[in-house]
Amino acid sequence: MSLRKKLRHLLRIFFKSKLLFAFFSLSLSLLLVVGSTYAWITDSDQRLNRSEKQTSKLQVRLDGDFNQVMYWAPGTTKQKPIRVANYGKVPAMVRISFEEFFVGFETDVQDNHGDGNGNGDLVVYASPELPAITRDTSTWVVGKTYEANANKYYKANKVLLNEAYAYKGTRAEPLPAVQLNFISNKFFDSTNQPGNTEKDYWYYEDGFFYYSEILEPNDTTTDLLASVTLSSDYANQYKGGLYHLVPTMDAHDIGKSLLTNWTLDPSKFVHDMYKDKLH
Hints:
Protein name: Alternate signal-mediated exported protein
InterPro entries: BsaA (IPR024008)
Order of helices and strands: HEEEEEEEEEEEEEEHH
Helix content: 10-25%
Oligomer: single chain
């Protein structure tokens, strides 16, 4: 083989490898900042894509709006659609789960009135407590500081990491103030069952949102998430907090092994929803 042909061969391998990496290891950040003067929330959508079986052929990924949003004020809603697209040549079944992260900072609870309410502003420190907090959740540690600007730091006093999102489940404060708004006519659960003729919907069960249909090549699911609302009841003590939302997508071929690989309970809805569609 000539040198030129060898180089072409290596370049083809490189670009194919980069393509597969993009589909199966893609991680994006979506920052939502909670308003009210300083208030920030970071909803970081690391769109994590996991594929089981035929991983060399499955090319399925999360799509949607992953752009950063700054100064997100209580009582407002941001459009954040999330869906799944099949860019490959193999049909797939897909599901999505969410994890939440939060870091809050000290607020002023002292004032001249002596009532302990303070003015609610973030406590400002002139020097950092290192290692610094960044928008990378691995740096979120109580007692460490975030640099707002030169010589102005906020100190973390509350950290929540890897909180699995459970629809209608219990969420640690202040996570309930962040409301995930799903497409109402295409989203169902055990308290709201789909009709027999319903298609192209999402069903929530045991921590996952399952798409009802086989996702064929070049097809896209209906949107699961429509928007995110920061409740007007968001507590002042959490102003300035960084919030990070991570949706993770799992893809599987349409083999019957999906039922065991995803540990679907035969007595529940999703098992029945899928069993006759698998080969």
